[in-house]
Amino acid sequence: MSIMFLDIATIPDFELGVRLYQLHDLSKKDIARVMSTKNREKGNKTGILPQHVRRILAISVLFQDKENIKIWSVGDSESNEVDLLKILERYADEYKPVVITWCGDRSIFPILNFRCLSHSVQSPVFASHTNLMAELLGTTNNKPISLHEIAVLSGFLGNEEMPDDDVLNHYLEGRTELVRNNLELSVINTWLIYQRWQLVKGKIDRTVFDAEKKLLKKILLQEDRIHLTNFVEALT
Q1: What are phi and psi of 219, to 5 degrees?
Q2: Nearest to 187 by CA among 21, 58, 10
Q3: CA 78 to CA 53: how far, in whole Å?
Q4: Torsion angle in degrees (nearest 10) through CA of 233, 220, 80, 148
Q5: Which domains does the chain carry?
Q6: CB contact at 8 A, 123 and 137
Q7: For labelling, which of 40, 89, 108, 211 has a CA lying 20 to 30 Å from the CA of 188?
Q8: How far is the C-alpha of 187 from the C-alpha of 31, rounded, in Å?
Q9: Are the C-beta atoms of residues 192 and 156 closer than 8 Å to each other?
Q10: Are 74 and 88 in contact (CB under 8 A)?
Q11: pLDDT tens readout for residues 149-158
């Protein structure tokens, strides 16, 4: 069985903002500001944009089968959204993996659906999906819990989720790779929590858990990328 741990990062859909609010000749930064203001005027005091007016900037994946673990971000920092969606669809079609997310029912899959609808791109079809946060809570009705905090609770390093404003600023300033790197750490932490949960439930024993974590460290070091190396060095 193949398992895919999946996460995404989003920015405002600038083109949609232009069409919705007649924002021609404005910069992307100003378009984002108007979209946020309009959202607050509709009663959303948090300022977080609804799922249907956001587009995907990055998709990160940790893929595991019986033989190996692979961690990567789809495409590259210059890939457009359509390319990201098509690559994910092809991968899902080839491997039909079980997908594990942290709260994916609330964020990842609705946004994937809207973006595929926007571009008439074939939606990825996975074997099944597990919302790890909901499984730990025992319900899907609670407010989201921080992945970082649960990772730390579980004895891991964790990594703070990048706020939407920071994601947008990194994009506007040409630093999309920083977003992709942070997202990769999120899927790694999801994997670690999942493995720890399998140990707690008795699905695997301590020997298997330790072996899996050792394999992860080896794979991350082989990647020879600074954010992954730093993560491994802090992983006990």
Answers
A1: -65, -45
A2: 58
A3: 21
A4: -50
A5: 3-234 (3.30.420.10)
A6: no
A7: 89
A8: 30
A9: yes
A10: yes
A11: 999 999 998 9
Pair type for strands 128-131 and 98-101: parallel
The Cα 159–Cα 7 span in angstroms is: 14
Provide the edge-to-edge strand list for the sheet that holds 128-131: 69-73, 54-64, 3-12, 98-101, 128-131
Residue 95 CA to residue 48 CA, distance in Å, equals 34
Tokens, residue 175: 């630093």
3-state secondary structure of 122: coil
Looking at the DSSP bridge assignments, the partners of residue 56 are 10
Which pair of tokens denotes residue 121? Answer: 């791109």
pLDDT digits (tens, 9 = 90+) for 75-132: 999 999 999 999 999 999 999 999 999 999 888 999 999 999 999 999 999 999 999 9
Residue with tokens 């905090």: 149
Total residues belonging to the chain: 236
Which amino acid appears at position 135 of this protein? E
Diameter of the chain by CA atoms?
A: 60
User: Number of C-alpha atoms within 13 angstroms, CB side, residue 72?
Assistant: 13
Q: In Å, what is the CA distance from 77 to each residue of 119, 163, 204, 221?
A: 20, 19, 37, 22
What the block records as the tokens of 163 is 């706020």
The residue written with tokens 């506007």 in the block is 172
What is the H or E stretch that residue 53 is in?
none
